[in-house]
Amino acid sequence: MESSNAPLGATKRTTLHRIPHKEVKDRQALYQILDAALVGHVGFVQEDQPFVIPVAIARDGDSLLLHGSKASRLFKILASGASCAVSVTILDALVLARSAFESSMNYRSALVLGKAVELEGVAKERAFERLTDHLLPGRRESLRPTTEKEIKQTTILTLSLEEASVKISSKFPADEEEDLSWPVWAGNVPIEHRYGTPVPDPRMTVAHPLPEYLKEWPEGRT
Ligand SMILES: Cc1cc2nc3c(=O)[nH]c(=O)nc-3n(C[C@H](O)[C@H](O)[C@H](O)COP(=O)(O)OP(=O)(O)OC[C@H]3O[C@@H](n4cnc5c(N)ncnc54)[C@H](O)[C@@H]3O)c2cc1C
Q1: Checking phi first, is residue 121 left (phi over 0); if not, alpha (psi -120 to 50) or beta?
Q2: Which positions ≥6 away from 21 have C-beta within 8 Å?
Q3: What percent of the chain has pLDDT over 90?
C-alpha cells in the first residue's frame, strides 16, 4: 500500500493541546513507533461502555493490520464498522528528577483513530503474511503453511493511518534551578526492549540448531 503524505495531528481530534512541543508531525515517526511495537491497545464502545483491549499489530504501508478469531467480540464489532482508537506506546526511560513532581518518563507514543475494514481474498492472505513477518521476522518460510480453514477462522482488519498523532518525550529532568543542588542522584534510566535466551520446546522431537534469525532478534526492537 502507498504511504500517505497527510501530516500527523492534522484533525481537530488529533491536535495536541497539552505540552504541544512534544507533538511530532513527521509521518516517519509514526511508522517507526508502529514498526517497533508488537502490541497496540484498541479502544471501542459497546452499548455505551468503553473497552480497551490489547492485540498484536503490524504496519502495512499506511495501514495498521489486526487479526483475531472470527468468534471474537472485539473483531465482530470492529468489522461491523465501529469507530475505534489504537494506542501504541514505547517506554524509553524513567526520568529521575530531584522531586517526585518533576520525575517523568521518556516515551514514543502514537494514537490512530478510524474505522477498520475487513480484508478478504488475496489481500487477506497478504496481510496474514505481513503480520507473521512483523511478529515473527524470518520465520514464515520455515513454518507449516497456513491452511484455508485457519484463514477462514481468522478476521483480518486494516485500519488507515490517515488520522493519527505522535507525541514523543525525550529529555533530562526539568528541575527548577533552585532544586539542582538538592543532594540526590538525578538523570535518566534507559528501558531496553530485547528478547531473552530462547528456550527449546520440550516437545521438539528432532534436534534443530538455533535459527540464524533468532540470533538477530535480541538486537531487533528499538
Ligand atoms: C499481548 C497480547 C496480545 C494479544 N493479541 C491478540 C491478537 O492479535 N488477536 C486477538 O484476537 N486477541 C489477542 N489478544 C487477546 C485479546 O486481548 C482479547 O482477549 C481477545 O481479542 C478477545 O477480546 P474480546 O473483547 O473479543 O473478548 P471477550 O472475551 O468477549 O471479552 C470480554 C471481557 O473479558 C475481558 N478481557 C478480554 N480480553 C482481555 C485481556 N486481554 N485482558 C484483560 N481482560 C480481558 C474484558 O473485561 C472484556 O470486556 C492479545 C492479548 C494480549 C495480552
Answers
A1: left
A2: none
A3: 77
pLDDT digits (tens, 9 = 90+) for 29-61: 999 999 999 999 999 999 999 999 999 999 999
Task: Note the pTM of the prediction, 2 decimals.
Answer: 0.93
Closest CA to 156 of 56, 65, 72: 65
Q: What is the residue type of 73?
A: R
74 lines ligand 1 (CB under 6 A): yes
Euclidean distance between the first and final Cα of the chain, in Å? 24
Whole-number mean pLDDT of the chain? 93
Nearest protein CA to atom 4 of ligand 1, as residue: 55
Cα-to-centroid distance, 188 and ligand 1 (Å): 33
